[in-house]
Specification:
5 strands; about 130 residues; Thiol Ester Dehydrase, Chain A
Length: about 130
């Protein structure tokens, strides 16, 4: 399982001082992006070299407890399932100070052709990289 640290900034919070619900999606995205980067897969290079993009296709999220301004969070990302043209992440957001799980998500990411934006098979070399971390 891959983990990425995130700090909650004032701009991430709403009038009640808690993280605005949509910002959890940004935190989850950062962890997925950094996970790809840790495998040597940069998204801009995937577009240029392989003519593919990874796009969120489906998302299910459970907000369990609020994160607040200045909290240090740990965002995890792990491939739960892999298909021919998509893979699904199991992700969590945990408050570092006490280990309390704040958010849980399942995110399906589709591989799409960068020109047509139509689904396409994940290239075998990339699938091998992703699968080796699975």
């Amino acid at each position: 399982m891959f983990s990425w640290p995130v700090r909650v900034y004032y701009e991430d919070t709403d009038a009640g001082g808690v993280v605005y619900h949509a910002n959890y999606l940004c935190f989850l995205e950062r962890a997925r992006t950094e996970w790809l980067r840790s495998l040597g897969l940069e998204q801009d290079q995937l577009r240029q070299r392989d003519n593919i993009l990874f796009a969120v296709r489906q998302l299910e999220i459970d907000y369990l407890k609020p994160a607040r301004f200045n909290d240090a969070l740990i965002v995890s990302a792990a491939v739960a399932r892999m298909g021919r043209a998509s893979f699904t992440f199991a992700q969590t957001i945990v408050r570092e100070a006490d280990g309390v799980e704040l958010c849980r998500a399942e995110v399906k990411v589709a591989c799409v052709d960068a020109t047509t934006f139509r689904p396409c098979a994940i290239p075998e070399n990339i699938k091998a990289e992703i699968g080796s971390d699975h």
